[in-house]
Amino acid sequence: MRRQPSERGAALVTMLFLMLALLMMSLSSTRAALAGARSARYERDRQVAHAAAEAALRDAERDIEGAAGPASPRTAIFTALDADAFDQRCSGRAEKTGLCKPAKGAAAPAWQAADLAEAGVEYGRFSGRTLPTGSGSLPATAPRYLVELLPASPPAAQPLFRITALGVGADAATVVVLQSYYRRATGTIPAKRLGWREIANWPELHRAASN
Q1: Which of 24, 107, 166, 189 has the highest CB neighbour count under 10 A?
Q2: E strand or H helix at 6, and its extent?
Q3: Which of 181, 176, 202 has its CA nearest to residue 54?
């Protein structure tokens, strides 16, 4: 029995709907795959930035312990604990680069207000170490750090420093900021990192402090 034109038309419409459904499913799968790939790339890039920031924390600790050398003015600042070398705006130059005092009153913390990418100490500046950057899965730029001298409590206690470090991924837009508290070695008392944290919203905090 021959099909009527209406039956052939209904079959064609059904096939078109099936093809459209398959196309939509394919597009959805492709979008999901692309989103997964972007997420994986971002997470890898974030790990690169995190490792760079951690490297900067360790470089800052070496700096505090005198990595610049016993005759260096930078080492003398930490050895003699020259509080005048630390600036509330982190705007020091030369051997005073990246040294900060805590902000007064209700002002934003120094590490929040300062531009880490400009005021911070570039990795290796005082320790002499190098960190590969700029190609492949390496950080786009060298990480940087600030060192704040915190008030001792009690006054006779070992000096306590707050280190804030910024690392970037292979994509310079991927940023991780880590912060630690560090006591310098004194006499028979060894140096010690007292803890660390990630400041996930540092860009927002910095913009708020800059306004």
Answers
A1: 166
A2: helix 5-64
A3: 176
Going by the DSSP 8-state scheme, the letter that residue 177 receives in this structure is E
In this prediction, residues 81-101 reach a mean pLDDT of 93
Show the tokens assigned to 111: 């590490």
Rounded to whole angstroms, the Cα distance separating 67 from 69 reads 5
How far is the C-alpha of 156 from the C-alpha of 143, rounded, in Å? 33
How much is the CA Rg of the chain, to the nearest whole Å?
27
Coil, helix or strand at residue 151? coil
Preceding omega of 154 cis (within 30 degrees of 0): yes
CA atoms of 206 and 74, how far apart (whole Å): 27
CA distance 118 to 91: 10
Our CA angle for 68, 186, 164, nearest 5°, is 55
Please answer whether residues 123 and 144 qualify as being in contact, where contact means their C-beta atoms are separated by less than 8 angstroms: yes
Q: Does the pTM of the predicted model rise above 0.70?
A: yes
- d(CA 163, CA 120) in angstroms, rounded, equals 10
